[in-house]
Design brief:
Layout (H helix, E strand, L loop, with lengths): L10 E2 L5 E2 L1 E5 L27 H13 L4 E5 L9 H9 L6 E6 L4 H10 L4 E5 L5 H8 L4 H13 L4 E7 L9 H11 L2 E5 L12 H4 L3 H9 L4 E3 L8 E6 L5 E5 L12 E4 L4 E3 L7 E3 L1 H6 L4 H11 L21 H4 L2
Parallel strand pairs: 3-4, 3-12, 4-5, 5-6, 6-7, 7-8, 8-11
Antiparallel strand pairs: 1-2, 9-10, 10-11, 12-13, 13-14
Helix pairs in contact: 1-2, 1-10, 3-5
The structure holds S-adenosylmethionine and iron/sulfur cluster.
S-adenosylmethionine binds next to strand 5, strand 7 and helix 11.
Length: about 325
């Protein structure tokens, strides 16, 4: 593949935002069916529409050549993709990458944590919405809490640079577990982020306007018990981080619905179909799969296509705003 670096290595959109973070979805499939992410019956992509591991690697390589320093592998559930470790190893060897991250439901972490660390993964985000086996099963439809907790312990034993729990709080489902989840993170000495449910795809299970739980409410529940101090070091994107008095746990609030931090957005996503998505909450996208398949040896064309795509990155998303278009894409297709 011709992969000479273009003269400028920064991805900058027309609003001056620097894109140095990409999330690559490596599969739309998953062994869970979380109620906020998928509908109960899902149709997954036919194999020929899914990028091969080699094609995903070419995309990762192009982004790193364009100046991206941080790559997250996600999905669907990244650890159910066969041979995922070979892709992780190859991306881990890319020069100039500061961070290689994975977001997982932890169902396969118990057996894979060591190999992921050896392959160069620096941080892992693990989804955990309940510590009650029955509620966990209800929320994931198929998940086994014990297996996930063993996965978290296995990851903890590997001393990754960072481990963070992700919890999506739904009113009437798991909103009574906010403190339990925080206390579990504190006891494990890992970080935790509470994520607002986003209206992506028609999930059929519940009316999102009824279950939607603002992080302002989650924060009130926590602050009634634990003094929080906002951290001066913040990452770009829709998250705000706090320290919890008397603990090493860093607490994050990811609030794409109640707050809009799009002005500091530093990221784009690539779906496993090879669609470069410029914004989580909009459909603006560019097809990379055609470039990868019609010009498999032209790394420069791939880089140029990615650079040009920055011009259509929307200013912001419009969740629940009047006349806002409904995003039909489910989160498992999006690469969360
Ligand atoms: N399967 C992996 C997992 O669950 O960690 C990775 C993919 S999942 C789509 C990535 C993250 O998106 C998870 O933390 C999940 O809780 C979150 N998520 C899924 N659907 C969401 C939605 N509608 N709104 C907000 N977060 C969502
Ligand atoms: Fe699967 Fe993750 Fe979606 Fe749950 S949130 S269904 S684990 S992709």
């Amino acid at each position: 593949m011709n992969s000479t670096v273009l003269p400028s290595t920064n991805l900058i959109d027309k609003y001056g935002r620097h894109i140095d973070y990409v999330r690559l979805s490596v599969t739309d499939r998953c062994d869970f069916r979380c109620v906020y992410c998928m509908s109960e019956k899902m149709t997954f992509l036919p194999r020929n529409q899914v990028l091969s591991l080699e094609e995903i690697f070419k995309v990762a390589q192009a982004f790193s050549q364009l100046g991206v320093r941080k790559i997250r592998l996600t999905g669907g559930e990244p650890l159910v993709r066969s041979n995922i470790l070979s892709l992780v190893q190859n991306i881990g060897l890319l020069p100039n990458l500061d961070e290689l991250l994975i977001t997982t439901n932890a169902s396969h972490l118990e057996e894979m944590a060591g190999a992921l660390k050896a392959a160069g993964v620096t941080r892992i985000n693990i989804s955990l919405d309940s510590l009650n086996a029955a509620t966990f099963k209800e929320m994931t439809r198929t998940g086994d809490l014990g297996q996930v907790l063993r996965g978290i312990e296995a990851a903890k034993a590997q001393n990754f640079k960072g481990l963070r729990l992700n919890a999506v709080i739904l009113k009437g489902r798991n909103d009574h577990e906010i403190l339990d989840l925080l206390h579990y993170a504190m006891q494990m000495k890992i970080n935790i982020a509470f994520i607002e449910e986003m209206p992506l795809g028609d999930v059929s299970d519940h009316d999102r306007l009824e279950t939607s739980c603002s992080n302002d409410d989650v924060r009130r529940v926590i602050e009634a018990v634990h003094p929080l101090t906002e951290l001066s070091m913040q990452t770009a994107g829709p998250s705000r981080y706090f320290s919890v008095a008397g603990s090493e746990t860093r607490l994050g609030f990811i609030s794409p619905v109640s707050h809009n931090f799009c002005e500091s957005c530093n990221r784009v996503r690539v779906t496993v179909e090879g669609r470069l998505l410029l914004c989580l909450g909009n459909e603006h996208s560019v097809d990379l799969r055609t470039i990868l398949r019609d010009h498999p040896d032209d790394g420069l064309l791939l880089q140029q296509t990615i650079r040009n795509a920055m011009d259509i990155k929307p200013l912001r998303h419009y969740f629940y705003e009047k006349d806002a278009p409904q995003v039909v894409r489910f989160m498992n297709m999006t690469g969360g």
